[in-house]
Write a structure and sequence with these properties.
The chain has helices at residues 2-15, 18-29, 32-37, 43-59, 63-76, 86-95, 99-109. It is mostly helical.
Length: 110
């Protein structure tokens, strides 16, 4: 979990600015749920790792890793996690206009 949180923080600094990254650090620091769930081996723990990694790689424009991370979080954790991949899909389909790339990424996870 530490790796994914550090990666998320460093990409927020790189993509946005250090003030927003500082806000993120305070949210991650005082979020008790993240601290407790990192030490247990529950489906929520895997979801925490993979969703953090998916959003970090999404900000880094590494869409294949983001889609695969959401797919693993959905399969290993909870099926409702697939809803957290909707913003990634919207960004890829409507903003970046990479429809065939999305289909290729989606097919590679199946």
């Amino acid at each position: 979990a530490t790796y994914t949180e550090v990666k998320l923080y460093s990409l927020v600094v790189k993509r946005y600015n250090s003030t927003i990254a500082l806000y993120l650090a305070f949210i991650l620091l005082f979020n008790v749920g993240l601290f407790i769930s990192t030490t247990s081996f529950l489906p929520s723990t895997f979801v925490l790792y993979f969703v953090s990694l998916a959003y970090a790689t999404w900000m880094n424009k590494s869409y294949i890793t983001a889609i695969v991370s959401i797919a693993f979080a959905t399969l290993l954790g909870w099926p409702f996690v697939a809803l957290l991949g909707v913003p990634i899909a919207i960004d890829l389909l409507f903003i970046e206009k990479k429809i065939f790339y999305f289909i290729k990424c989606f097919n590679s996870t199946i």
